[in-house]
Design goal:
This protein has 84 residues and is of the alpha+beta class. The chain has one domain: NE0471 N-terminal domain-like (2-Layer Sandwich), CATH 3.30.2020. Strands 1-2-3 form a three-stranded antiparallel β-sheet. It has a three-stranded antiparallel β-sheet with strand order 4-5-6, with no helix packed on it. The longest helix has 6 residues. The two termini are 14 Å apart. The mean pLDDT is 93.
Length: 84
């Protein structure tokens, strides 16, 4: 477990389906598959990102990976550890 270390996301690359490769400010690269999270959610505001066009609309904002002005985002520590 990472303790109190904040790393920014400096690059995000869509790899297809719901997989995104993230590059962090300390040099770590991690591939996250968001598909299981999106499919398991019952909330319509989250499930709408099963639409790949909406999912592909992510951006990096202040070191965070976000969709639609923070409508969907994840704790940076969870992304860093690969646990969402």
């Amino acid at each position: 477990m990472i303790e109190n270390i904040a790393h920014d996301i400096i690059e995000a690359k869509h790899l297809g389906n719901y997989r995104i490769q993230l590059a962090f400010s300390d040099g770590l690269n991690r591939v996250i598959d968001f598909g299981p999270f999106l499919r398991s959610s019952a909330h319509p505001d989250i499930r709408k990102y099963l639409d790949l066009q909406k999912f592909e609309g992510f951006m990096i904002e202040s070191g965070d990976l976000v969709w639609n002005d923070y409508e969907l985002c994840f704790p940076i520590g969870d992304l860093y550890e690969g646990t969402i």
